[in-house]
Amino acid sequence: xxxxxxxxxxxxxxxxxxxxxxxxxxxxxxxxxxxxxxxxxxxxxxxxxxxxxxxxxxxxxxxxxxxxxxxxxxxxxxxxxxxxxxxxxxxxxxxxxxxxxxxxxxxxxxxxxxxxxxxxxxxxxxxxxxxxxxxxxxxxxxxxxxxxxxxxxxxxxxxxxxxxxxxxxxxxxxxxxxxxxxxx
Length: 184
Known about the structure:
- It is a single chain.
- By secondary structure, the chain is an alpha+beta fold.
- It has one domain (14-178).
- It has helices at residues 14-25, 30-36, 59-69, 75-82, and strands spanning 39-47, 50-57, 88-96, 110-116, 119-120, 125-132, 143-153, 162-168, 173-178.
- The strands form two sheets. A five-stranded antiparallel β-sheet has the order 1-2-3-7-6. Strands 5-4-8-9 form a four-stranded antiparallel β-sheet, with no helix packed on it.
- A hairpin with a 4-residue loop joins β8 (162-168) and β9.
């Protein structure tokens, strides 16, 4: 009988920390396959061959990734380190569009809304930087989008659907939904 997979939870239970650590230290393809579910490609908003992506980084995925990077790291180590640790919920976006002007900050050309149960979530921190087109050293550097990171308190996010809506200054729109009742 397969274990029942609970969705998003915070704070992480000791069994969730154990499962995340075991997934992270697995030597098969399961970690990559599982973590890929936390990234959505949104081909409706793209520049040339580059499509917009939205990724979520939950406390569970953070433990998984941390354990992947450590040698000789045990479940007990993870339980000690992450048992009572305050954690964040992060949303990373690579948004491809043609900005209205070339500046160091294209965030003004975007409207991004994160919501659950029709309530908008307010991030603690927002970081951004322009994405530039591949170029040679002597070429004109053109911005083709913006990398945007939202950081929220993990306790402010529930296990209901997380909706991400992105609109650009010129009327382009795209959205995606993360099923946090399924994802950890």
